[in-house]
Each structure stands twice: as C-alpha cells, then as structure tokens.
Amino acid sequence: MTALPLTITQAGLMRYTAAQLGDDVDLSVSSVGLTATEFVAAPTLTALPGEFRRLTTISGDQVGDSIVHMVIRDAEPLSYTVRGIGLFLADGTLFATYGQVDAIFEKSTKSDMHLAIDIAFPTGDPALLTFGDTNFLLPPATTEREGVAEIATEEEVAAGTDPRRIVSPFTLARRLVALLAGYMPAGRRLDTAGLALGGGALTTDRTISVPAATGEQLRTATAANAAVTPASFGALGNVIGPTGSYTLPGGRIDKWGRHRQRASSEITVPITFDTPFPTACYSISLTPFISAPTTNDDYFVQLAGEPTREGFVVQYASDDDNGGLSGFEWQATGA
What is the pLDDT of residues 78-111, one digit of tens each? Predict the structure, then answer.
C-alpha cells in the first residue's frame, strides 16, 4: 500500500503546529471531502475545489512514526469518480488535501466504497490527530499492532528483503526444506559406536543415548555396553555404619560388625549376618575388645569352624583364669 503525500494547508499547519507546542487545539478529523476535479494541492487552499461529497464515516490511527492509516466508507447508492480528497477538522478547517490526474477510485450505485489509505506526514507527531468512527478501521499489521497483512510469496520469502509481508507455514516449510537441503545431502546417516546407541538414517529424528550401568552389571563386571555412573554404585546396596556391608565392583562383598558381651569363661558366640552372602563367606577377621586398659584381661577370640553364607561362631579362650573379655570386632569377606 502506497502512502499518499498530503499537502497540509496553511490554516491546517497553524493548528497542527499549535497542537505540537501544547496548545489546546482540537485536531479531530471529522470529515473527508471528495472531488472529481483536477487541482493543485496548494497550501493556500481553504476549500476543496469541486467538492461534491462530504463523508463522516471515516476512521484512522497512527501505524508508524509518521504514517496515519485511514479508512473512508460510503454505502450510499451513488456513482462517482474521485481524483482528490480533503481532510476537514471538527471546526470546518481544511486541514490537508491530496489530488492527482488519474482517478483514485470510482464508485457505482451497486457498490459500497471502502477505501483504505496511508497518509504520510513529513514532520510532527501525527498521533495528535484523532478520528471519529473506529469500528471498521483496518490498519496494516506491524510488529506493534494487529492489522491487515499480505502473505509473502515463495520468491519474496527466499529474497528475505520485504519487512511488511508475512510468512505462512506453507512458504516457511518450503523455504526451510530448501535451506536444509544445502546442509544435509540426501542419504546421510548418523551412526554410533562404542557405548552410544540410537543412530541410523536421517530420514527421521534421532536420539543418541548412552545407557547407564545397573548395580547388577557393576557387580558382575561383564557388561561392555553401559557407562558407570554414581547411581550405579548406589544400586550395589551399600550400608555404612557400625554394622554394615559394602559391595565392590566385580562382586566382592565386605561385611563388618561388633559384639559386646562381658565374659570370664570360654564361651561361644554365634554371629548371624543381617544379609547372607549370595555365594559364600571366604574369611573372617576377629579383634578382641576390652572396655578399658588392664593387665588382668588375658582372653582372646578365635574362629570356631568354617564360616557359612549365613554367619560364623566365635570362641572366647584364655590360657589361665585371669580376667575376661568385653567383646570383639569382626570383618567378613565373601561374594
């Protein structure tokens, strides 16, 4: 849409300038005059030459820094040709005019006239101009407001130079296909190796992933297609405390604990693991315990028999009758 360069009249300029300076001036454009007469749009005009019709069904708003979009409507069954227009303020002042040799538009008795034009103001702030009817305003769409827009052709999208037309999903998709074709030749693949999974032909979306090792895979230490993560160790079932159990990668299991029982005779103490070893218990280490330093406690502990998956038996022992033992610490190794 081409903006019409209006010529502001001297009277209109005086009121426009006064409004720019803050004077209480009514810049309401209340009507538009139509003429079929060729005329020179001189700033000295005070009336529209050859005016034959005055319309009040107008609407307008600022759509750019110096552009006002205006719509004129005439639904009367009249036939006429228009070569020029004049904008009149509410007090009757001819504010601005535009004219040309060729017809701007023609109307028949069978049609309604609905003319949308953009008006370019060379200086000042056109936002001070107001219009009457706004219920049928159809301004051009901008980045700041909704409005009427033209859909760009494929050629215009490819050129990428038009800031006013909009891109439809159809033209955007075709443009993206053309662009991507230059970067991704047909038949290309994204294959994986090592721990990475999910490759294939690039005919669809691909997700590349590296599976995390499970606790069982870490225990058996045989999987070659998974990555060890902190969560992998957490799944080994480790329990840390005075009595606990820890499973190492590869399957070794360490258990430990303590027994507290004061005895001054050669008693036996059975120890049962909280959780049996899955396969076997291979060794037991024992450490005697006394509650305080003394020369009277000459007892020691020894393993009584082979340990089992479920536990073992400890024998208190001494080579004399002196003192006793307050307990012992133990550590078991198995798988």
Answer: 999 999 999 999 999 999 999 999 999 899 999 9
Instruction: Dihedral sign for Cα 107, 113, 114, 117, please.
Output: positive
Contact call for residues 131 and 61 (beta carbons, < 8 A): yes
Work out the widest C-alpha separation in the chain, in whole angstroms.
140
CA 302/CA 333 separation, integer angstroms: 16
pTM of the model: 0.41
Q: How far apart are CA 205 and CA 191, in angstroms?
A: 13
85 CB-side CA count, 13 A: 22
DSSP per position, 271-309? EE-SS--SS-EEEEEEEEE-SS--SS---EEEE-S---S
3-class secondary structure, 7: strand
Whether residue 183 has pLDDT greater than 80: no
- Count of C-beta atoms within a 10 Å radius of residue 140: 17
Which amino acid, 262? R
3-state helix, strand, coil in the chain (%, to 5): 15, 35, 50
Q: First and final CA of the chain: distance in angstroms?
A: 85
Q: Residue 263 and residue 261: Cα distance in Å, rounded?
A: 6
